[in-house]
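pinned: reference chain
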Amino acid sequence: MGPMTTSVIASVTLIHAADAGDAEKAERSLQDGAYIETRHPILMVPDNHFMGRSPHKDPYIEEIVSDTMLRKKQREMGLTPLMRAAKEGHIAVVALLLERRANAAARDEDNMQPLHFACAAGSLECCALLLASKAHPQEQDDEGRTPIDLLAKDIWADRKAVAKWQVMFGTAADPDLRIAF
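pinned: its structure tokens
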């Protein structure tokens, strides 16, 4: 296998490790050359296609490669490993990825960031790690929701739980904070 193939396999392995919460597997995949910001879908185009050495250029691939907007959108489609780990509340994987400098401000196609996913998962610990890594608690997704807006209804119903979240997000004195008691 060439280096390109190895890094693609390592990147796919990283995605699966983030989903499963397997920090050891995530670490190995990073050591094997995984791209820490990889996402699905992965667009596979042969190296020689970009180098102009392909004897048979596929018009479909040509159209994809030449469309700058589509290439930009391709980078933003899907979830990064950090988003995936945060979405599942996998604290050890979130910690590892942040330690390895994963982008805590990355956005998906809906403008959601890892902190949105950690809040939706109800993972106070993942949120604490993300906030310590300079995640932005006031960033909004395409529907105008901040991360704390995505907390589950059962958390909002528990005064003690709400207090913990408010302290973490620095919103205890915020009159606009919607608390459903």
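why pinned: The chain has eleven helices and no strands. The chain has one domain: 3-41+77-169.
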